[in-house]
Amino acid sequence: RNYYGGNWASFSFSGLLSWIKENQQKTDTSDDCEDWRKLILENEEVISLSKKDKTIQHVEDFCFGDQDSAEDVEEAGALPKLPIFGASGAEGVAQESEKECPPMESALPEAESQEPEKATGTKPASAMEGNDTEITSKNESCHSTALGESALELGKTEAAPSEISAQEPKKVTYSQIVREGRRFNIDLVSKLLYSRGLLIDLLIKSNVSRYAEFKNATRILAFREGKVEQVPCSRADVFNSRQLAMVEKRMLMKFLTFCLDYEQHPDEYQDYENSTFAQFLRTRKLTPSLQHFILHSIAMVSETDCSTLEGLQATKKFLQCLGRYGNTPFLFPLYGQGEIPQCFCRMCAVFGGIYCLRHSVQCLVVDKESGRCKAIVDHFGQRISANYFIVEDSYLSESICTNVCYRQISRAVLVTDQSVLNTDSEQQVSILTVPPVDLGKPAVCVIELCSSTMTCMKDTYLVHLTCPSTKTAREDLEPVVQKLFNLNTEKETENEELEKPRVLWAVYFNMRDSSGVDKNLYDGLPSNVYVCSGPDSALGNDCAVKQAETIFQEMFPTEEFCPPPPNPEDIIYDEDEIAPEESGFSNSPETKPEPSTEESSSGGSTAVKKEDNEE
């Protein structure tokens, strides 16, 4: 591929259009050169890898906006340089890197994390909302723990007066979206980071967090009786809520307090261990609205499949994550989820790892006697030897995956002209769970991103919808889209439709969910070949972190997984290690220009603060 992250990637708008076109055509790459077969010895055999990515299916895109001569419009090249990294696909970074750097070099985020500047009046209005929150990963002088201490600091910003939201949203045309395409960073997978989840802990421990910035998710929403409303989560939210009666506030606080230490009160739930969580909630003297909030917006679990214990665990996890970095349990990485893989690639590159774009692999070379994989052969006909090989599931051929039964994820991405729930502040990051439309259907997770997340242009919102697949993505998700948004392009619409946000552009697709597949189900894989899956359908990232650590520990059982890196001044290089750089070949990506004041001081973001002893 010519972009980072596989199915975890983020794209600019033009990059996503290229990705859509590529997946709709599904052209198979033919193997013109057979010279590499001469490299295979008599006592060796090959395992051919798939040359066609079959993880994405049923891609359908629609434009609902005004297509006013959009064919002649190109992405603006004169915009301020945004650190889009892998966010632009075939149209952006890939083309630049093809011109400017050889395939072995990688265009990763900046080596040195820039300390965000104080917010000033020069900041764009879209980036002014919210508080500046900083994750500080400190190397304390006392070194009380190997993981370091993470602290929460709320910086005060000189916030400019927030713009008064107009009665009607500004009209955005399709040509404007294309022209401002570099302002978009559109994720293939939609996830949030739990503030006390495994990924946040790993980012802090490994110091990879220095390469990323985050924004708090500001609202938890619920869809009930045809309306979207905000869910009170914290104690302050509960008691300030106008939608709950005083009795309901006491009921909710009592139940949430119980969930925080439910293990200490087994007599309260052990009679319902074989019941669903929804059935258990009905026994707790909670009103229907409270049951709805807890089930769909706090625990975020299925009404029919989730057991009582699973529901209590999910509720406790939600509550434990509250208050660490904000009033909700979630963080979102600025510039999109696709930044996270690149942050780890950057740390890898700093210590000599090489990430090769546009560099395909023909086959695995296996020793017939030992049954172990010895090497790979790439598309240049080069043979590259190694002790361990990690293969993403999509590269395995059908002959290897005959016993594997895959799940699917239904995805939709929308560009809209206003929020699903308008408030005084336009800069909101919201998560909404829509209950199943019909029995047997899954709930749909909706994540709405504003322009200050650096994922969409001003005056638009980027909306991600995700659920486990039962049919094609469009069949699964379009009923929910029709409930929440106005798809009508005609001027004459009903008053009810006028109140809904208007969809300007949409894409639907199904993505393979290969998480949870036992390695033994893959037929004929050597013992030193490890398979990693693509994204799963869960909201968090725990599955990926656990899988990465499991594979690492199988290869290196005595080593620590992602240990804190040494300070640069403490690293002593051998002469052999310095030699390659002197010869002109460098593993490190090119240095990017420093971000402008507008880019480095985006409001409401969670940034990494450097210590004085760090470069």
Automatic annotation (TrEMBL):
GO terms for cellular component: cytosol; nucleus; Rab-protein geranylgeranyltransferase complex. Residues 571-580 have a biased composition (Acidic residues). Keywords: Cytoplasm, GTPase activation. Gene3D superfamilies: FAD/NAD(P)-binding domain (3.50.50.60), Guanine Nucleotide Dissociation Inhibitor, domain 1 (1.10.405.10), Guanine Nucleotide Dissociation Inhibitor, domain 2 (3.30.519.10). It is found in: Cytoplasm, Cytosol. GO terms for molecular function: GDP-dissociation inhibitor activity; GTPase activator activity. This is Rab proteins geranylgeranyltransferase component A 2. It comes from Eudyptes sclateri (Erect-crested penguin). The lineage of its organism: Eukaryota, Metazoa, Chordata, Craniata, Vertebrata. The gene is CHML.
